[in-house]
UniProtKB/TrEMBL annotation:
<keyword id="KW-0249">Electron transport</keyword>
<feature type="site" description="Contributes to redox potential value">
    <location>
        <position position="31"/>
    </location>
</feature>
<dbReference type="InterPro" id="IPR005746">
    <property type="entry name" value="Thioredoxin"/>
</dbReference>
<keyword id="KW-1015">Disulfide bond</keyword>
<feature type="disulfide bond" description="Redox-active">
    <location>
        <begin position="30"/>
        <end position="33"/>
    </location>
</feature>
<dbReference type="InterPro" id="IPR013766">
    <property type="entry name" value="Thioredoxin_domain"/>
</dbReference>
<dbReference type="GO" id="GO:0015035">
    <property type="term" value="F:protein-disulfide reductase activity"/>
</dbReference>
<dbReference type="InterPro" id="IPR017937">
    <property type="entry name" value="Thioredoxin_CS"/>
</dbReference>
<protein>
    <recommendedName>
        <fullName>Thioredoxin</fullName>
    </recommendedName>
</protein>
<dbReference type="Pfam" id="PF00085">
    <property type="entry name" value="Thioredoxin"/>
</dbReference>
<feature type="site" description="Contributes to redox potential value">
    <location>
        <position position="32"/>
    </location>
</feature>
<dbReference type="GO" id="GO:0005829">
    <property type="term" value="C:cytosol"/>
</dbReference>
<keyword id="KW-0676">Redox-active center</keyword>
<dbReference type="InterPro" id="IPR036249">
    <property type="entry name" value="Thioredoxin-like_sf"/>
</dbReference>
<feature type="active site" description="Nucleophile">
    <location>
        <position position="30"/>
    </location>
</feature>
<feature type="active site" description="Nucleophile">
    <location>
        <position position="33"/>
    </location>
</feature>
<comment type="similarity">
    <text>Belongs to the thioredoxin family.</text>
</comment>
């Protein structure tokens, strides 16, 4: 399951969470984002112990600017509310799974 994260619920869904949050910064008009979307959804549906969320950059420009998102898709992994890794562009599911494993405790 993926959570829609926005400027209103960001603190609750990301900053105040213990553990890992994988956040996909995307836009509906972005072709590469549409390719990456199902990969992110699958991770959200199948990987235990990580919260997976999506941030629409058009609707949440403050969050995009706060984390320096210049190109989409950009995926940021947070641990205990702090960003620890950032991946820009479409990547294989295994890349994200390896990141999650790297920071799992």
């Amino acid at each position: 399951m993926t959570v829609q994260v926005n400027e209103t619920n960001f603190a609750q869904e990301v900053q105040q969470k213990d553990g890992l949050v994988l956040l996909d910064f995307w836009a509906p008009w972005c072709g590469p984002c549409r390719i990456l979307g199902p990969i992110i959804e699958e991770i959200g549906d199948t990987v235990e112990g990580v919260t997976v969320g999506k941030v629409n950059v058009d609707e949440n420009p403050v969050l995009s600017e706060q984390f320096g998102v210049r190109s989409i898709p950009t995926v940021i992994l947070f641990k205990d509310g702090q960003p620890v890794e950032q991946v820009v562009g479409v990547r294989a599911k295994e890349v994200f799974l390896a990141l999650i494993e790297k920071y799992k405790v």
